[in-house]
Amino acid sequence: MQKLTRIVTLSLALLMISGCSYFGVYKRDLPQGNLVTEGMAEQLRPGMSRRQVVDLMGSPLLEAPFDARQWDYVYRLDEAYGGVEQRRITLTFNGGRVVEIEREGDFSTAPPLGDERGIGPDREAAADDQEAPLDNLTPDRP
């Protein structure tokens, strides 16, 4: 009986520890914020209106709550098995026009947007479905 108790205890301990295995955990990159590229940042100029900035960059991620003259465009990529990449552009307005542009982070490389396959169905399978004739989908009529 004592041997059976040891076996059951050991089995339960191993079962509980196996649930904490590192090898079974899936992690993925987590991008957040406004996607800001080098090309977009290069087109920003002092004197641009708010409308021109929104047309170029999109809506800002943050508007300073106590100073409506400041807009922040922040992009943050938390890599699953790596570090954190952050880019930030802060625009300061005076009278509805950009007066100051502050850049923070490395804009020289494009941020990764996903793997080669992308999200969703396989592209090759989707292309095969589009090329299939529709004649074989209608029932035969006598």
Automatic annotation (TrEMBL):
<dbReference type="GO" id="GO:1990063">
    <property type="term" value="C:Bam protein complex"/>
</dbReference>
<keyword id="KW-0564">Palmitate</keyword>
<dbReference type="InterPro" id="IPR026592">
    <property type="entry name" value="BamE"/>
</dbReference>
<feature type="compositionally biased region" description="Basic and acidic residues">
    <location>
        <begin position="114"/>
        <end position="126"/>
    </location>
</feature>
<feature type="region of interest" description="Disordered">
    <location>
        <begin position="102"/>
        <end position="142"/>
    </location>
</feature>
<protein>
    <recommendedName>
        <fullName>Outer membrane protein assembly factor BamE</fullName>
    </recommendedName>
</protein>
<feature type="domain" description="Outer membrane protein assembly factor BamE">
    <location>
        <begin position="33"/>
        <end position="101"/>
    </location>
</feature>
<keyword id="KW-0472">Membrane</keyword>
<dbReference type="InterPro" id="IPR037873">
    <property type="entry name" value="BamE-like"/>
</dbReference>
<comment type="function">
    <text>Part of the outer membrane protein assembly complex, which is involved in assembly and insertion of beta-barrel proteins into the outer membrane.</text>
</comment>
<keyword id="KW-0732">Signal</keyword>
<dbReference type="GO" id="GO:0051205">
    <property type="term" value="P:protein insertion into membrane"/>
</dbReference>
<comment type="similarity">
    <text>Belongs to the BamE family.</text>
</comment>
<dbReference type="InterPro" id="IPR007450">
    <property type="entry name" value="BamE_dom"/>
</dbReference>
<comment type="subunit">
    <text>Part of the Bam complex.</text>
</comment>
<dbReference type="Pfam" id="PF04355">
    <property type="entry name" value="BamE"/>
</dbReference>
<dbReference type="GO" id="GO:0030674">
    <property type="term" value="F:protein-macromolecule adaptor activity"/>
</dbReference>
<dbReference type="GO" id="GO:0043165">
    <property type="term" value="P:Gram-negative-bacterium-type cell outer membrane assembly"/>
</dbReference>
<keyword id="KW-0449">Lipoprotein</keyword>
<keyword id="KW-0998">Cell outer membrane</keyword>
